[in-house]
């Protein structure tokens, strides 16, 4: 345990949560999506998605079923096009958390 965490524990301070880092490919895809969607669309349907990236695979995880359904029906083609530009060999997967 690091000294800072030990000190925080002793002083009953809240220990900082580990920062999540978004995969680089997903960041590039999201930037492309921002340019083609309204702010409301982007914030409602794309921003809530989390991503896991492995070699040549990008898995997008929706926090709720209705978001997953909307992404599948309305935004999947745009996401695939943006992914093809950012990582041509990558395969896209969608799942529900």
What oligomeric arrangement do these chains adopt? Answer: single chain
Number of helices: 4
> Based on helices, strands and strand pairing, what is the structural class?
alpha+beta
How would you characterize the largest beta sheet? Answer: 3 strands, mixed
Low-pLDDT parts are 15-19
Structure description:
A three-stranded mixed beta sheet has the order 1-2-3, covered by helices on one side. The longest helix has 22 residues. Helix 4 links the parallel strand 2 and strand 3. It is an alpha+beta fold and 97 residues long. About 5% of the residues have low confidence.
From the structure above, extract its key features.
97 residues, three-stranded mixed sheet, 4 helices
Q: What is the topology?
A:
Layout: H1 3-10, H2 24-36, H3 39-46, E1 50-54, E2 57-62, H4 65-86, E3 91-96
Parallel strand pairs: 2-3
Antiparallel strand pairs: 1-2
Helix pairs in contact: 2-4
Question: In a few lines, what is going on in this structure?
Answer:
This protein is 53% helix and 18% strand. It is α+β, with helices and mostly antiparallel strands.
């Amino acid at each position: 345990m690091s000294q800072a965490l030990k000190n925080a524990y002793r002083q009953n301070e809240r220990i900082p949560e580990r920062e999540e880092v978004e995969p680089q490919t997903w960041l590039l895809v999201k930037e492309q999506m921002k340019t083609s969607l309204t702010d409301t669309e982007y914030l409602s349907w794309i921003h809530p998605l989390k991503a896991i990236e492995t070699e040549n695979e990008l898995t997008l995880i929706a926090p709720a079923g209705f978001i997953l359904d909307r992404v599948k029906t309305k935004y999947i083609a745009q996401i695939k096009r943006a992914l093809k530009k950012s990582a041509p060999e990558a395969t896209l997967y969608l799942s529900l958390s």
